[in-house]
Amino acid sequence: MTDWAPILIAALVLVVTAIVAARHGSIAILAGGASLLVALIVWVVTASWLPWLGDTFLDVYPGWRLIIGVASLFAVVAFGIARILSGWILRRLLGRDAPLHFLAEGAPAAMVSVFPGLVVVVFLFSCFRVAGTLHELNYVASISRDEITDMGGRIPPYPWTSAARNRIEDVPMVAEGLDVMDPFSERAARNAAALLILSRADATRDFAAAQEETSAILKAPEFRDLVASEEVAEALKEEARVGLVLHPRVASAARDSALSTRLERLHLRPLLERFVDSIPVSEPRETGIESTASN
Known about the structure:
The protein is mostly helical. The protein folds into two domains: about 5-120, no CATH class; about 135-295, no CATH class. It is about 75% helix and about 0% strand. The protein has helices spanning about 5-25, 25-55, 65-95, 105-110, 115-145, 160-170, 175-180, 185-200, 200-210, 210-220, 220-230, 230-240, 240-245, 250-255, 260-265, 270-280, 290-295. The protein is globular, with a radius of gyration of 22 Å. The model is unreliable at about 290-295 (pLDDT under 50).
């Protein structure tokens, strides 16, 4: 599948939303878009503040599963409440006898449908982004093993979902906006997690240390502190990809240290593909990498 798929789907969503609004009215579509926007805001606020609240008042860091679960529950409840309220408000603003009824039908309805369409696009982009990040981290883990040097010529290509995520982030201002909404795919944090995974094996660690875009990061005291952290080592051992990206120490180093700018601007795909190309072709040998990289 082409890495342009998210962009094409986004364009299709906007076109279909406009057609449906023009033919059947914009009230339901606007109410749905407003409700989804409220749900996204509630999810982001909850996921962002819950770790701080737990650490401040309970002196404990809630695990990533609890954070995502509570944020998702709050978002679902918020969506339901917002859907009822927005539907009631919009029927009074755009109903048949309302002063703004002209926006509820025909071409004007198609124009105002851009708002809910964009909200849906943001949600879809976030979903693609999460999938691309998860697959990228799995791919990094699959090649971050010393026996990878015996797999020359048989290593799977870079995941297309990750390439699609990169294509989304090429759109101006989109990456910065989604960084605020999606903590798991925030560029600095996910790149820090990927480099920590690469550091587990001699082959990938030595290669990354010799590359211009990553050598300074791997040598920085802040990154070495992460590598030496027992908590981070435990997350690496458990292969908890989401937990590693959201780990407080990883997130703090990614957002609030001298590494932040370098990590945010880092593009892993060229580095990973150069590493794969550097491995000489060898005779087949069973290592299980194919199944690991596809998970």
